[in-house]
Each structure stands twice: as C-alpha cells, then as structure tokens.
Amino acid sequence: MSGGHLATLCLTALGIVYGDIGTSPLYALRECFAGEHGVPPTPANVLGVLSLVFWSLVIIVTLKYHVYVLRLGNRGEGGILALMGLVQRRGKKRTRLRVVLVLLGVFGAALLYGDGIITPAISVLSAVEGLEVATHVFEPYVVPITIVILLTLFLFQRHGTAGIGSVFGPVMLLWFVTIGVLGVASIVRHPAVLAAMSPAHAWTFFRQNGGRGFLVLGAVFLVATGGEALYADLGHFGERPIQIDWFGLVGLSLTCNYFGQGALLIHDPQAVSNPFFRLGPAWALYPLIVLATLATIIASQAIISGAFSLTYQAVRLEYLPRMEVVHTSETEKGQIYIPVVNRLLAGLTIALVLAFQRSANLAAAYGMAVTTTMVITTILAGVVSRERFGWSVAAAAAVTVGFLVVDLAFFGANLAKIGHGGWFPLLVAAVVFTVMTTWREGRRLLNRRLRDVLIPLEKFIAEARASKPATVPGTAVYLSIVPDLIPGSLRHNFDHNHVLHEKIVLLTVVTEEVARVEPEKRVETEPIDQRFRRVLLHFGYKEDPDIARALDSIEIPGVCLDPEKTSFFLGKESIVPTRKKRGMVFWREKLFVFLNRNAWSALSAFCLPPEQSIEIRGQIEL
Predict the structure, then answer these.
(1) How many CB atoms lie within 10 A of CB 449?
(2) Domain presence at residue 545
(3) Rounded Cα–Cα distance for residues 157 and 337 (Å)
(4) Residue 606 — pLDDT band, cuts 50, 70, 90?
C-alpha cells in the first residue's frame, strides 16, 4: 500500500468508521452527571467518572477492538455476520452449541438495527440542542429543526454519497482537531484533571457511590458505543488505516475532550447542562454548532449505510427475503440503497425524536443494544480465536472471560435503562430476529418440501425419453434451488407444454459464508447427458449475484449461451400454510408466506434480462 493511498484511506475512514464514537462527546459526559442515574459533579465524582471513561476507551475500544477483534477478519471482512460465518465454518455438524452460537450472531445483527434507529436521532438532536446554549429563543424549534435535518438525510439516501462522500473525511478531520484543541485548552487551565488516568479514582468512585455509581456505568458506556462499527467497517478500509486513525488522532482527541469537559465541570459545576458546547469561547459557539451538526449528519449517514450493508449481507445469507437494492455508485460496489429499509429507519427515527423530545431522554434508551452486541461479539470472538491464533482452551477462555467481565458490567448497568426507553432497541431486535429466523427456517422447510414433491434429474430424463417431447432450438437456463432435483419450473413447463429445449442448464446459485469468492472458484459445471448440464455459481455474501454476466464470462462445452438465444426460467412458489406439525407454528408459517409473497422478484435480484425470462408459478404446502 503506497503512502498516498494509505493517507487517502485514513482520511476517508475518519468519516465512516469514527462518526458514531466521534460524536459521543456531545452527550456522554453530560449524562454521567445530569442523566437519569447521574451523580453530583463534585471534584471527586468528576475524577472518578473520567477515570472510568479513560479506562473504558483503553479496554473496550483500544485493546478489545483494535488489538484483538480487528484481527479476526473473515477474508478481510468484519462485522458480527462475518464473525458468525467464521463460527459456522469451524465445522459442518449441526451441533447444539453451534446452533446457539449462530443464533447469538443473528440476534447481535438484529440488535444493530435498534442502534441504527437511535444513533441518528440522539446525535442530531444533541447537536441542535447546542442552540439552546446560545439563546432560549431556539428551544421550541429544536425538535422541528432535528426532524427537518433527518428527513433531508433520509430523502437524500437514494442519490448515494458518491458526490459528497469525499468531504466526509475532511469534515471529520476538522471535527477531531477542533474537539481535541478545545479539550487541551481546558486541561491547560486545570491540569490537575489528568490525575483521573489513575484507576484508583475509579475504585474510589465506586466505593463512595455504591449502587448508584454502578448505574453510572450505563452513561459511561456511551463513550464506546461506536466500537462495534470499527469491526464492521474492516472490509472497507482494512486494519491498518483504522488503527492509524485511532492511535494517531481519534483516541487522543476524544480523551482530551472528555478530560477538558471534566476540567470545566470541576471549575464550574453549573456547566453540567451541556459541558461540550461550554468548552469553547462564546464567539465560537455558532460555528461549533454548525460543525457538530455536520459531524452528526456524517455519523448518521455511516450508521444508515451500515444498516443497508447489514441487510444486504443478511439477504445473501438467506436470513432475510430478497429486497430491491439500488447501487448508487458506478465505481464503489459497497455503496447501496435499500428503499424499504430506508423508509423503516426514517419513520422509526423521526417517531423516536417526537416521542422522546430530548437527547437526554434518548440517552436512557441508548446503549442497551450495543452492550448486548458487544457481549455476543466477545463470545463469538473467543470461539474463533482458538483456531485463528492457535490458542489453547485456557488462553482463549482467559481472554474471553477478561473482556466479558467488563462487557457484562456495562450490560448490567444498562439493564436499568430498560424501563426508561431501553426496551425500544430490544423490541426492534426481537422483531427483526423473529423475521430473520422465520425466513431462514421457512426456507429450510421449503427446501425439504421441494425434495418431497420434486424428482431426481435422472428419473426425469428417463421419463422425458419415454414420452419423446418436441425439441425447441436454443438453450434454456432453469434456476434450481436444490441442485440434485429438477426445478419446479421445468416440471411445470414439461407437463403443460410437452417440449424441451435443445440444451438445458440447471443453474443453482450458492451463497458462500465468505464475503467474496475468487473468480477461479466461481463456477462448477457437470455434464449429465447430451441435453442436460448442471451448473453451480458461487457468490460471496457481499457480491451481486449477476447470473447473466457470470454465464457470459464462461464457456460450457457443447452449450451455446448466446444472450439472444438463451431463455431463463424461474419458479415462483405460492406457499400455502398448514396446521400440520412439520416444523413451525402456524403464525410463523403465515409470517413466512407474507415475507415470501412480498420478496423482491428473483428476475431483478439475479440481474436477468426481462425480455428473455419466463416466471412459472406453482403451489406447495409448507
């Protein structure tokens, strides 16, 4: 990697990787003292909270994510689904432990949707609330201004970020430099605050505040809420640029700003209502509000894009039904827009702003989803680390337990938030988890039912030879769900039209548990007889399954794949739910039928030419 390319990646990563954690200073320290379970901003309490903040950044963000988890990439890709893929690849046997670990990974992914709804709401609302520091005139307009900004942000998603993405990095660079300078200026005026680096102050804080001090951990955790994004964006930038940004700028800027806010509170406890915006001089307030608003918009954009990427991966792994995916950039493959996800996120985010009104109220709901996801990440990482690093059971367990102690402490403190809004991300996660597991199990049951009603290819060939159907010139490509059985579309076409094409390709799309498949492993072909040939196309869960392009790039002996002479046949099964005890309860069968009926067309999902594609419908009981 050249120096110039590395510098560009580092700058771009600032705007995507560190948006969430980078805007936490707007509200994190304030909630430790002015929140639902806050403590009085006495000098001892300020030093104790700062010590907790400092060591949270060191243990969770630095050691756990930058030093440990970032090294557990799935062929260069990160995120909880990538980690789940590594767990699945450890063995093919469907053991009970493996099933539990996979379900944990799915639930962790579902939790990120709750985070994706809350983050834009609390970030933008916190920035706009800075206007109240300047004057109370803006107080009635904070919520309307926030909603306008969020609506604009979500409406803009369809156009993509290719045009404005180049400014994300420079804006966030200015943001981190600014908050770092503000923090240093405050520390210089009150350098005694640096004593908070000693963990002794954290111990004294717990000893003096007891149970209330433990609950403050729920607010302290807000400083690390963007930690999971570091791993999720591994595939976009690689490990090195992310680490250079953290150790070279982001970590230092955040630490300085938090210590600067603490120094301000020791000197002026009345600043607790909004210590971030009171750090700077009066003349810089409005420019700081504008910069903070831009930073929160960029952070929200990164979260929304992450939700699109997560959904796309879940669809490819067959945990969600096919959805319309719009590629917003001709050069960047990862820039996508999913309309249905965008509409749901927009509606729920704006509803949150209207319901909670204040960022302080939203902070009570924030953190529950992220702490749960971090606990799951630690467990899955512990399983993978044995194979990746060659650790013994004792070494892997020691590291896992060490991080779990910290994760579970924050998780326990955040449990107190459930009654104050923490139920919302858990409810979202429960709904998404139900949808994901229902779709996955429904597809498994459907494949099993297809094996019951469809016949093996060899039996069909014998049947076709005996009936001597008419032969149609050209090549027919039939999409097959189960490779060793004939697809329903072929069965229906043969039974009703009594014809077969001159050449028939039975095509199965296989989604691997890796992000991308090497070109040489893309295609598997197997000749059956002079007429039939079986083809398997392998795609990674982050790749577009463009069947027409993939077939155009290969040669199959004896088969002409001329686009003008090739017809594509797809089956669309109308599923009938039954009350027979075959696997799922009736309401889940109904949900699966609803999802299947509203799934995006396979024609569009597989990039097939509409003028040469025929969809044949059938009916099957689940």
Answers:
(1) 17
(2) yes
(3) 7
(4) confident
Same domain, 478 and 417: no
Q: Please state, in angstroms and rounded to a whole number, the distance separating the CA atoms of residues 575 and 590.
A: 9
Q: What value does the mean pLDDT take over residues 474-489?
A: 84
Kindly report the backbone phi and psi dihedral angles of residue 525, in degrees, each rounded to the nearest multiple of 5, phi listed first: -125, 145
pTM greater than 0.70: yes
Cα 547 to its chain centre, rounded Å, is: 26
CA 183 to CA 262: how far, in whole Å?
Answer: 9
Whether residue 463 sits in one domain with residue 417: no
Q: Does 368 share its domain with 474?
A: no
Nearest to 595 by CA among 447, 442, 482: 442
Which H or E run includes 573?
Answer: strand 566-576
Expressed as residue numbers, the domain containing 610 is 446-621
pLDDT digits (tens, 9 = 90+) for 128-173: 888 877 777 778 888 899 999 999 888 888 877 655 666 788 999 9
Q: State whether 408 and 475 are in the same domain.
A: no
> Strand, coil or helix: what is 256?
helix
> What's the number of domains the chain is made of?
2
CB atoms within 10 A of CB 453: 12
Q: For residue range 292-348, what is the model confidence (pLDDT) as tens digits?
A: 988 988 888 888 888 888 888 888 888 899 888 887 765 555 577 889 999 999 999
Residues in the chain: 622
What is the C-alpha separation between 374 and 377, in angstroms, rounded? 5
Secondary structure of 116-139 in HEC code, one letter for each residue: HHHHHHHHHHHHHCHHHHHCHHHH
Same domain, 583 and 531: yes
Q: Residue by residue, what is the 3-state secondary structure of 170-214?
A: HHHHHHHHHHHHHHHHHHHHCHHHHHHHCHHHHHHHHHHHHHHHH
Residue 396 lies in a domain: yes
